[in-house]
Write a structure and sequence with these properties.
CATH superfamily of the largest domain: Glycogen Phosphorylase B
Largest sheet: 10 strands, mixed
CATH architecture of the largest domain: 3-Layer(aba) Sandwich
Number of helices: 16
Number of strands: 16
CATH topology of the largest domain: Rossmann fold
Radius of gyration: 22 Å
Oligomer: single chain
Shape: globular
Bound molecules: 6-O-phosphono-beta-D-fructofuranose
Strand order of the largest sheet: 3-4-2-1-5-6-7-10-9-8
Number of domains: 2
Length: 479
């Protein structure tokens, strides 16, 4: 099978460059090992919607990356507009933040159609297309319009909300009907999958049997495929990274004190303001912790042209300044707040240095930072993960300290508990999480999805909204 992977953002090929977002980091090893071609946005735009020249095609392991300049006239309406000011807020259950126009929707559809045309050059008789994320909900339908008959799968990296929230998205019906051109529609969790199924049944009046929905496009299978990481590679990377000069500097600066770490894109779904408030509250409840613990919050700026993101940047700077002003001393700053990205290697070393990983999104499809923090720990002296129960990762990492990210006091208590947890309990919790991570690696995620996509062309059903049964390793190799 010739696999064509499509996403808006693609990884940077050069090692040690900052990586923005979980999707890019997750797909990198998949493409490197499978020999797939990975098509995405170059980040540049080009005048004239009919010109679809690729800026670049670069080799990546066994595979390659193809970067496409998107049409200038539609890029803003597609990316900042419909994708990130209508779909993103809705998918994260923030309908109050939806700001969108009909023009934005048209641009979104134009870019989906443009991408479909560009993909034709990669089509071979044995191709299969694997489309990623909410930027391309309608790409499958556009490919079918162009006569593509090969299997097309779709995976959503974000949550899928309840049907009433989706009803708040303009043109939701047309868009979700278009999604049914996909042969396979994958979600992070069973809950997301069930929310989608509930929309299909209640709003589109469709019947779903044995996880298969029939529509005017034919049949589509629905299933949950929780995304994982390359656990052993990440663990080895973290152990090595401890001697990286930047990590050594961090360790020296922490000295014998303790470090809590948070790593996020600046996004309202990440619960950053409540997290800072929880750290503030913890210091207020436990004055004895003053000077003994600091929070390193890496907050990579994101989507700054959108008002809600700009406002969040401003609010975060204000809250961090207030907390540092309140608790800081001439020789101690409680919160180290860094507005920039770091390479995966450096992050791995930072995670291993920190005694607590603080991952508290209000809503998150999976959250790979949580998984990476666990994988990076020293087995004899592991740190503690404090994790929001509203991150998809909480389904697997259920021996983390699970918190409600809306409950600032509860998070402050969990933080104190994490900082004082005895080593035997830390080890027990960590070992249980590592076992789960090893049972659901990135390799298993991609193999399971591709196997299920191939099965859509056979009559063999997979169980409704269940993680697809794993086939024998030899059957799962991606060519
Ligand atoms: O979760 C969806 C996702 O595609 C992630 O990969 C990443 O966290 C984020 O969105 C990337 O957003 P952007 O490309 O807008 O920075």
């Amino acid at each position: 099978m010739n696999l064509v992977v499509v996403s808006n953002r693609v990884a940077r090929v050069k090692a040690n460059e900052p990586m923005t977002g979980g999707l890019a980091a997750a797909l990198l090893p998949v493409v490197e090992k499978s020999g797939a071609i990975w098509v995405g946005s170059s980040g540049r735009v080009r005048d004239g919607a009919t010109k679809d020249a690729f800026a670049d095609i670069e080799p990546l392991g066994e595979g390659a990356i193809a970067l496409l300049d998107l049409p200038a006239a539609h890029y803003g309406g597609y990316y900042e507009g419909f994708a990130n000011s209508a779909l993103w807020p809705a998918l994260h259950s923030r309908s109050d933040l939806i700001r969108v126009s009909l023009d934005d929707y048209r641009s979104y559809r134009e870019v989906n159609a443009f991408m479909a045309r560009a993909l034709l050059r990669f089509r071979k008789p044995d191709s299969a297309f694997w489309i990623q994320d909410y930027h391309f909900l309608a790409l499958g339908e556009e490919l079918r319009k162009l006569g593509v008959t090969q299997p097309i799968g779709f995976f959503l990296h974000t949550p899928w909300p309840s049907r009433d929230v989706m009803n708040g998205v303009p043109n939701h019906r047309e868009l979700i009907e278009a999604m049914l051109a996909y042969d396979l529609i994958g979600f992070q969790t069973e809950n997301d999958c069930q929310n989608f199924a509930s929309y299909l049944k209640s709003d589109l009046g469709l019947k779903i049997e044995n996880n298969v929905v029939t529509s005017r496009h034919g049949t589509s299978r629905l299933a949950a495929f929780p995304i994982g990481i390359d656990v052993d590679a990440f663990a080895a990377n973290a152990a090595r990274a401890i001697s990286h000069p930047e990590v050594v500097r961090l360790r020296k600066s922490v000295d014998d004190k303790r470090l809590v770490i948070g790593v996020d894109r600046v996004d309202y779904s990440k619960g950053l303001v409540n997290r800072i408030k929880a750290f503030d509250r913890m210091l207020a409840i436990n004055p004895s912790l003053s000077r003994t613990v600091s929070l390193l919050q890496i907050a990579t700026p994101s989507r700054g042209a959108i008002e809600a993101y700009e406002a969040l940047q401003t609010e975060l700077s204000r809250v961090v300044t207030e907390v540092n002003g309140r608790h800081g001393e001439v020789d101690w700053t409680p919160i180290r707040y860094l507005s920039k990205g770091f390479s995966q290697t450096m992050l791995a070393g930072f995670y291993r240095t920190a005694q607590v990983g603080l991952v508290t999104p209000l809503h998150d499809g999976m959250n790979l930072v949580a998984k990476e923090y666990v994988a990076a720990q020293n087995p004899v002296d592991p740190g503690v993960l404090v994790l929001s129960k509203f991150a998809g990762a909480a389904n697997e990492l259920d021996t983390a300290l699970l918190v409600n990210p809306h409950d600032v006091d509860g998070m402050a208590r969990a933080l104190s508990m994490a900082l004082t947890m005895p080593a035997p309990e830390r080890r027990l919790r960590w070992e249980a999480m590592m076992k789960k991570l090893r049972n659901g690696t990135i390799e298993q995620w991609s193999s399971s999805f591709i196997a299920a996509l191939e099965q859509t062309r056979t009559a063999e059903p997979v169980q409704y909204c269940d993680f697809p049964k794993r086939k024998a390793a030899a059957d799962l190799t991606v060519h």
